[in-house]
Specification:
Layout lengths: L8 E4 L2 E4 L10 H5 L2 E3 L2 E6 L2 E5 L1 H14 L6 H15 L4 E9 L13 E9 L9 E5 L19 H13 L4 E5 L5 E4 L3 E6 L2 E5 L8 H10 L2 E3 L3 H6 L2 E6 L3 E8 L2 E2 L4 H14 L10 E3 L1
Parallel strand pairs: 8-9, 8-15, 12-13
Antiparallel strand pairs: 1-2, 1-7, 3-6, 4-5, 4-6, 5-17, 6-7, 9-10, 11-12, 11-14, 14-15, 15-16
The structure holds 4'-deoxy-4'-aminopyridoxal-5'-phosphate (PMP).
C-alpha cells in the first residue's frame, strides 16, 4: 500500500492493468447507444486506513441499473475489484468510478449476444475549496421522466445532465437545477437538493430524481423530512444545499436570482458529513468498508 505505482492502474474484466494499455473497440455498443451503467463512490483516509463510504449501497444501485439493461452484475466481484484498484493505485482519499457496459458487436439495438465488460478506475480526490458556494440556474430542460428512463446511473441518461450543465454554464451559472412542468424541484445535474427553513431541514423528493446515497445519509444524520418542494418554496427558504458523493454537502449561494445568506445549518451539516465519512463519528462505522 505504501509505494505508489507510477502509472494509474485499473481493474478490467478480472485483472489489474495499466490504464494506458487499454483501448475500447470503436463499435462498442455503449459508445453508440449509452448502454452502460456506472457509479461514483468515494474512499476516505480514516484513523484505521482507507475506507470506502457506503460501498454496498452504491453497488446495489449499480446492480439495479445493470439488471434493467439485462446485464449480469456480481456485487461481490465488484466489491473486490474496488478494493483491489484502490490498493493498486495506493489511493486513500479517492473518487472511484466503476463502469459496466455492452461491448462490441452489431449496430442493432438488441444487446443480447453482445459481450459485457466491467472496469474500476480510481482518481485521487482533490482537497475541497471550502467557501466556494454554488450558483445555480434553473434549467429550461426537463429531467428525464422516470417513466421514460428510471433514475439510475445509466450512461445514456447523463446526456440530459450534460445539456442542462451546458446551458447553465452559458448563462454564467456553475450548476443547473431541474424543475418539472408543475414547478416542483427535481435535482441538480449530479446532486440532490435540500433546503433549510426556520431551522427545519427538508430533503427535496421527486420521482424523477436519483435516490442519492448522500441524501439518504444526510436524512439519517439530520432527521430531515423528505417531501415534494416547489421552486417558489426553495427560493423562499433560508438556506439551500446540494449533495452527492462528489459534491459532498455543497452550500448554495444563489438559485436563479435569489441569493442566500451564510448557510450556517448547511455548513454544520457539511462538517458533520466530513467527520462521518472519515469514521470520526460512532454512527459511521457501519457505513465504511475498510481497504
Ligand atoms: N443525482 C444525480 C443525477 C447524480 O448523478 C448523483 C451522483 N451520483 C446524485 C444525484 C447524488 O447521488 P449520490 O449521493 O448517491 O452520489
Amino acid at each position: 500500500l505504501d509505494t505508489p505505482h507510477d502509472k494509474p492502474r485499473l481493474w478490467f474484466d478480472g485483472d489489474i492493468v495499466d490504464a494506458d494499455a487499454l483501448h475500447a473497440d470503436l463499435s462498442t455498443h455503449a459508445l453508440h447507444y449509452g448502454s452502460g451503467v456506472f457509479e461514483g463512490i468515494r474512499s476516505y483516509a480514516t484513523a484505521h486506513g482507507a475506507a470506502i463510504f457506503r460501498l454496498p449501497e452504491h453497488l446495489e444501485r449499480m446492480r439495479q441499473g445493470a439488471e434493467l439493461l439485462g446485464m449480469d452484475f456480481d456485487v461481490a466481484q465488484a466489491t473486490e475489484a474496488t478494493v483491489q484498484t484502490l490498493r493498486a493505485n495506493c489511493h486513500r482519499d479517492a473518487y472511484i468510478r466503476p463502469l459496466t457496459w455492452v461491448g462490441a458487436g452489431s449496430f442493432g439495438l438488441d444487446v443480447s449476444g453482445h459481450p459485457q465488460h466491467m472496469m474500476v478506475a480510481t482518481t485521487q480526490s482533490l482537497v475541497h475549496l471550502n467557501g466556494a458556494r454554488a450558483r445555480i440556474g434553473v434549467s429550461s430542460w426537463r429531467r428525464n421522466p422516470a417513466d421514460s428512463l428510471p433514475p439510475l446511473k445509466l450512461c445514456g441518461g447523463y446526456v440530459n445532465s450534460i445539456l442542462a450543465k451546458r446551458e447553465a454554464r452559458s448563462r454564467g451559472y456553475g450548476e443547473a437545477l431541474f424543475v418539472d412542468h408543475d414547478g416542483y424541484v427535481v435535482e441538480c445535474t449530479g446532486a440532490n437538493v435540500f433546503m433549510v427553513k426556520d431551522g427545519r431541514v427538508t430533503a427535496v423528493e421527486h420521482r424523477d430524481a436519483l435516490p442519492g446515497i448522500t441524501r439518504d445519509t444526510l436524512i439519517t444524520l439530520s432527521g430531515a423530512t423528505s417531501r415534494a418542494v416547489t421552486l417558489a418554496e426553495l427560493q423562499d427558504a433560508d438556506e439551500v444545499f446540494a449533495c452527492g458523493t462528489a459534491a459532498e454537502v455543497a452550500p448554495v449561494a444563489e438559485v436563479e436570482g435569489r441569493n442566500y445568506g451564510d448557510n450556517p445549518v448547511s455548513r454544520e451539516l457539511a462538517a458533520l458529513y466530513a467527520r462521518v465519512v472519515r469514521g470520526e463519528e460512532s454512527t459511521s462505522h457501519a457505513w465504511l468498508t475498510p481497504v
